[in-house]
Design brief:
The C terminus is likely disordered. This protein is α+β, with helices and mostly antiparallel strands and 112 residues long.
Length: 112
């Protein structure tokens, strides 16, 4: 993990893919001051469905992938990199992919 000097921020949007949006992740969002909402709708067969959306800071609301994988892509702004980093550390087993370069594993013989 690359540590940033005090006062530095990440300047790109951060996304984290998790295999599912579990109750513990939703509770964590509430605990850190994030937002959650439940959207209820009726499908074409007349069945009621509910989706839980989560967001933190100025990031957008997140629930399911559009590509049918069934996972969730969580979005954070660059200014919330410390929160995204904390999320990666806490829920490492649930994460399938992310773009936070500071958490990417370094290969042998790779220098920055």
């Amino acid at each position: 993990m690359i540590t940033l000097p005090p006062g530095c921020t990440v300047v790109y949007p951060i996304w984290i893919d998790v295999n599912e949006l579990t109750k513990s992740i939703i509770d964590w969002y509430e605990h850190i001051g994030g937002r959650q909402k439940i959207d209820t709708y009726w499908n074409h067969r007349g069945r009621e469905h509910s989706n839980v959306y989560v967001a933190y800071g100025r990031g957008k609301w997140c629930h399911y992938h559009q590509n049918g994988e069934g996972g969730t892509r969580l979005h954070f702004n660059g200014e919330d990199a410390s929160i995204a980093s904390m999320f990666i550390i806490k829920f490492l087993d649930n994460i399938t992919n992310h773009n936070l370069k500071e958490h990417m594993e370094r290969k042998e013989n790779e220098y920055y």
